[in-house]
Write a structure and sequence with these properties.
Layout: E1 2-7, H1 13-27, E2 35-40, H2 52-60, H3 74-80, E3 83-86, H4 89-98, H5 102-105, E4 108-110, H6 131-154
Parallel strand pairs: 1-2, 1-3, 3-4
Helix pairs in contact: 1-6, 2-6
C-alpha cells in the first residue's frame, strides 16, 4: 500500500502527516507493507525541508520530519499511489481537478475522514499561527494516522 499525503505547499501539514504516519507504521511493524510520501498542490517550496516550526513541534512528539517538498505530479502520482490524502477541502478540490480519470479520483480522501477521537472537518494550515496551531495539527494527524492504519490493517471503514 502506497499513500501520498497532500497539502498546499508541502512544508507543514503533509510532511507532518508523512512523519507521523511513518512513525506509526514503524511502531506497528508494517514498513514492508505500507509506504508513504508527501507533496503539495503548488510548487512554492520545492526542494525545501519541512517548515522549522513544524519540525520542532513534531520532534517534541517523537516524529522526525525528513521529507523534501515537491509538487504533486498528477500523471505519475495517481499511477504510483493507492491513496492520495488531502488535508482540507481546497486540497481535495485541487486533487480532483488534477486527477486524470475516474479511477484516479477514486483514490482521493480527506485526512480527517480517518479521525476516531477528534472532530475536525480539515487539518488547518498552521503556517501563520503560533505553537498551539502546530500542536493542533499534530493532534489531528496523530488521531487520523492511527485511524488510517486501523482501516488498512482491519479492512474496516471508520
Amino acid at each position: 500500500m502506497r499513500i501520498l499525503f497532500v497539502c498546499l505547499g508541502n512544508i507543514c501539514r503533509s510532511p507532518a502527516a508523512e512523519g507521523v504516519f511513518k512513525h506509526l507504521v514503524e511502531e506497528s511493524g508494517l514498513e514492508k507493507e505500507i509506504t508513504c510520501d508527501s507533496a503539495g498542490t503548488a510548487g512554492y517550496h520545492e526542494g525545501e525541508g519541512a517548515y522549522p516550526k513544524m519540525k520542532k513541534i513534531a520532534l517534541k512528539r517523537g516524529h522526525d520530519l525528513t521529507s523534501i517538498s515537491r509538487p504533486v505530479r498528477p500523471k505519475r502520482d495517481f499511477e504510483d499511489f493507492d491513496l492520495i490524502i488531502g488535508m482540507d477541502d481546497q486540497n481535495i478540490a485541487d486533487l480532483t481537478r488534477m486527477a486524470p480519470d475516474a479511477n484516479s479520483r477514486a483514490k482521493i480522501r480527506k485526512m480527517t475522514d480517518y479521525c476516531t477521537r477528534l472532530r475536525h472537518r480539515s487539518v488547518p494550515d498552521p503556517y501563520y499561527g503560533d505553537s498551539s496551531d502546530y500542536e493542533l495539527v499534530i493532534d489531528i494527524l496523530e488521531d487520523a494516522c492511527a485511524g488510517l492504519i486501523e482501516v488498512l490493517t482491519t479492512g474496516r471503514h471508520l
